[in-house]
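Continuing from the previous page of notes. For each protein in this section, the sequence appears first, followed by its structure tokens. Read the first protein now.
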Amino acid sequence: MDWKSIFGLPSLPKPSYIKAYEQTLLKKTSKAKPIRELDFLVLDTETTGLDVRKDYVLSYGSVLVSNNRMKISESKEYYMRPKKRSKEAVKVHGLIQVRPYVSREQLIRSFLEDASNKILVGHHLGFDLAMLEKLGKTLGLRKIKQPSLDTYELAVRLENGKYHDPHTIAAQDYSLDKLCERYKIALDDRHTAAGDALLTSQLLLKLLKVAERKGIKTFGDLMA
């Protein structure tokens, strides 16, 4: 509900970078496009907790994957001044007295510019996107709508088949830690946004190789 319109208050104009992002959503990727020609933005957020309604973003990290290669030189890492701290979050992330901080607008603008015309990737990606949508809501960002790929779901599909029974899956066997161990990826810089984005990028490339062996070769195959 738009409370501003109800009370006769003018809405703030939507920033140009959000308008530009929304324009990119009009362009659809061909289902026949080979996976090797796709661009992925692999991302992660570290937060004060796991409740989207109450918790806040502490940091954001992303890695571009293009032509089946990680573009480390184009990776991003941002820290935000937390509205609150929790002992649990500090224990996990160790984010104390980090400088410099960026504004909410700087983070959202950079994310949207990088995300345009990319497939978004993350491990349990839905949570990260919900936190970014919350962060950008008052700036005029309504929804992050482009194609997305969850490495948790992709790994489950590749190892158990497309029509597996989700009730038979042990979720703990598909944590980022367990998958990195299974696919022989060194667990460096775990529990930082940039570190987890890098690990997830490596996992994505491993999973895409498995997918290719299973006959999944196009955008349409991958997103089916």
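Done with the first. The second protein uses the same format. Note its length before scrolling.
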Amino acid sequence: MKKIMMIVSILVLATVGIVLFTSDESEITKIDVETLQNRLENEEITLLDVREVDEYEGGHIEGAVNAPLSSLNATELSYPKDEPIYVICQSGNRSAQAAQLLQERGYTEIYDISGGMIAWEQQ
């Protein structure tokens, strides 16, 4: 019985170790448009608008940089990977995809804006 408990304990510890050492340290945090508004008013932030050019030109948040999701795979961003990046789209779907892509590229502090421009325009 002691041998079985010892083996089970070793397997549990090994599993926990593997999870801890292979987990991605970067995070994607969802924030609402009120939080975004507050940060825009009080901080200098990098805000990527991942909508297509025509959508962006139809209206965007002042200071937002257009980086369409459709070309984000081929685009090398010039932002430091350890500084915060905020991502917005029309409704929240494309920004979630863009945030995942940024995370895969090694960005460590990513904020995905819930509700996107629809929520922004309703506030």
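What the second structure shows: Residues 2-22 form the longest helix (21 residues). The helical segments are 2-22, 33-42, 53-57, 69-72, 93-104, 116-122. We return to this in next week's lecture.
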